[in-house]
Amino acid sequence: MTVSLPQVRQNLRRQRRAVNRFQQRQSEQQVLQQLIRLPEFKQARKIGLYLDAFGEIYTRRIMQFCWKQQKDVYLPMICSMNQRLVWVKINRHQYQNQRFSYHPLGMHEPMASRGQLTKELDLIIMPLLACDHAGTRIGMGGGYYDRTLAIAPCQPYRLGLAHEFQMVQQSLPREAWDQPLDGLLTPKKLYRFKR
Fold it and tell me: How far is CA 90 from CA 50, 59, 183, in A?
């Protein structure tokens, strides 16, 4: 029996919301321990991250580790003119003081008028709903990451973060505009893909 994409989205959203805080903190720590050994992370100076809002893997410890290692942290902001993401550099002080605006889609964004283009980053760590063994990424459905990555085909390295249950066994449909991942990091394993 084949499960439709809307069903996959609905099931995974429900599973992701059911992950409790203790499990989230454990997952965040396990992901960080793997991430710090990753060559692409070690070499990166400018790292795009996300603020967790919908049950994604937490990113607070990753940000703190980046600042400790003198790496620049950038958060996505939706550009209303073209519906793509730009990346706004934030520091520890801005993060701790919650200097963010609320976006109508339900997440927080950095407060800024301008941001960097994706191609200026060395590594982008992104959330997702599902990923398959070919690196096909299914997001929340807005297409912001796909539109943004389509104009930055070579740079940066694209790394998804997910709970283990978000790595699905079935092949996900990939449209011409869908942008695959280079790697996926779960609390248990790193998966690498060929784009």
Answer: 11, 14, 25
CA 61 – CA 67 distance, rounded (Å): 10
pTM score above 0.85 = yes
Distance from C-alpha of 112 to C-alpha of 91, rounded to nearest angstrom: 13
* CA-to-CA dists, residue 178 to 74, 75, 86, 121, angstroms: 23, 21, 18, 20
Q: CA 66, 141, 190: angle at the middle one, nearest 5?
A: 40
The 3-class secondary structure across the chain, one letter per residue, is CCCCHHHHHHHHHHHHHCCCHHHHHHHHHHHHHHHCCCHHHHHCCEEECCCCCCCCCCCHHHHHHHHHCCCEEEEEEEECCCCEEEEEEECHHHHHCCCEEECCCCCEEECCCCCECHHHCCEEEECCCEECCCCCEECCCCCHHHHHHHCCCCCCEEEEECCHHHECCCCCCCCCCCCCCCEEECCCCEEECCC
CB 74 within 8 A of CB 88: yes
Among 137, 144, 133, residue whose Cα is nearest residue 180: 137
Q: What is the mean pLDDT of each run of 10 residues along the chain (195 residues)?
A: 74 91 95 97 96 90 97 89 85 81 67 80 95 92 86 87 94 87 96 89
